[in-house]
């Protein structure tokens, strides 16, 4: 059955994913990846089929240039770009590492202009345009990021972007830098930019401060963006950005054809690997890679799931190498799932016996304050059958 019968996303034919775990992700306080961990992440992303990998600035910390050079040697498939301030020495250091492109950024909002770099509209243009022209002569990919785009007056934003696009930039990035934008605002703003600039790729970078990162990314796609920034586990400043798992889950729901080029079974191991690097558990609500991402407990749910998983699942776990978990030993269990389980282990219970088993499972789950393991449920079922046999004697 069709999940989204009026799906606007079916009109979208192409999309790129840019992973910024090794740039944005490095800005989260607990994140200090070793070079070996960075190489493992890059290898995994390349095997997944990511389109673009963004690295942190070539002047960020001692030894970073050597790390970038080493990563470049091990990066096959994905375009490798470096995040850079609009400062010539920063850009030159990045170029010396042999990367494929430069991700320039210079804020456009009044906050950026007054409290960040101190440049007004005309100065922003005069700073960025020569860098774009120079980089294009160098033959490298160049993106311009209008930091804090969604708190920038739209008229001024378009006035800033026009000469930058005219100078030959390959890609425009529209970041929701403080995570304040709503999906409606994102779609409207991206659409206005797309209407003005058909010839360039439009990238969206969404922070998750209001829990809207994935929704905003989808809205950006509807508005005309064709590059979406993600990071593993959504790592990034403050509460992070759009996660790879969340974005992939959303795209699988609205238009799976956009994901055909990616190895979807690598999302879960990649995100769990990063969690292990950080010494943390994958968050319980992380799409796809959470331990119980496909766990079901309520009796009504379990009853429907065993008949047709789509009754209570939007996504098929097998597509991602995930595993459906039926919590038959919870305090919420029901007679239908225990009837089914009894049959699976070769038992033939009467309805009264099943109800007795349900009561025992619920009581034990409450007493233990946990979900019983399947083996424990099986023991209860066998015990009920055995006591029934004894009653017949």
Automatic annotation (TrEMBL):
InterPro entries per record = 2-IPM_HCS-like (IPR050073), AIPM/Hcit_synth_CS (IPR002034), Aldolase_TIM (IPR013785), LeuA/HCS_post-cat (IPR054691), PYR_CT (IPR000891)
What Pfam families does the record tag this protein with? HCS_D2, HMGL-like
Q: What is this protein's record name?
A: Homocitrate synthase
Name the UniProt key words of this record, in alphabetical order: Manganese, Transferase
Q: Name one GO molecular function term.
A: homocitrate synthase activity
Task: Give every Pyruvate carboxyltransferase domain span.
Answer: 15-268
- Biological processes, Gene Ontology terms: lysine biosynthetic process via aminoadipic acid
Respond yes or no to whether keyword Nucleotide-binding is given for this record. no
């Amino acid at each position: 059955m069709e999940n989204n019968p009026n799906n606007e996303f079916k009109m979208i034919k192409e999309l790129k994913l840019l992973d910024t775990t090794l740039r944005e992700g490095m800005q989260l306080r607990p994140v200090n990846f070793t070079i070996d961990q960075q190489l493992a992440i890059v290898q995994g992303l390349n095997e997944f089929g990511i389109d673009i990998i963004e690295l942190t600035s070539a002047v960020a910390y001692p030894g970073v240039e050597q790390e970038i050079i080493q990563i470049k040697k091990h990066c096959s498939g994905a375009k490798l770009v470096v995040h850079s301030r609009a400062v010539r020495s920063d850009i030159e250091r990045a170029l010396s590492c042999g990367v494929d492109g430069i991700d320039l950024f210079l804020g456009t909002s009044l906050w950026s202009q007054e409290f960040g770099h101190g440049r007004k509209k005309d100065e922003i243009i005069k700073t960025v345009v020569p860098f774009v022209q120079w980089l294009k002569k160098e033959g490298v990919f160049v993106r311009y990021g209008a930091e804090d785009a969604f708190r920038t007056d739209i008229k001024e934003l378009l006035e800033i972007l026009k000469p930058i696009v005219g100078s030959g930039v390959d890609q425009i990035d529209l970041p929701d830098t403080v995570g304040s934008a709503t999906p409606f605002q994102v779609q409207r703003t991206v659409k206005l930019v797309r209407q003005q600039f058909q010839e360039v790729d439009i990238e969206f970078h969404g922070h998750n401060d209001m829990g809207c990162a994935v929704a905003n990314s989808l809205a950006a796609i509807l508005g005309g963006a064709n590059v979406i920034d993600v990071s593993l586990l959504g790592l990034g400043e403050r509460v992070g950005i759009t996660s790879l798992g969340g974005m992939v889950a959303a795209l699988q729901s609205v238009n799976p054809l956009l994901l055909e080029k990616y190895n979807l079974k690598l999302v879960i191991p990649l995100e769990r690997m990063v969690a292990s690097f950080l010494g943390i558990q994958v968050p319980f609500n992380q799409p796809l890679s959470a331990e119980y991402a496909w766990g079901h407990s309520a009796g009504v749910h379990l009853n429907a799931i065993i008949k047709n998983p789509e009754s209570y699942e939007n996504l098929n776990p097998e597509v991602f190498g995930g595993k459906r978990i039926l919590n038959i030993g919870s305090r919420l269990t029901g007679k239908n799932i225990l009837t089914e389980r009894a049959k699976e282990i070769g038992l033939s219970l009467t309805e009264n016996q099943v109800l007795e088993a349900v009561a025992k499972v619920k009581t034990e789950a409450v007493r233990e304050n946990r979900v019983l393991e399947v083996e424990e449920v099986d023991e209860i079922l066998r015990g009920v059958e055995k006591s029934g046999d004894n009653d017949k004697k």
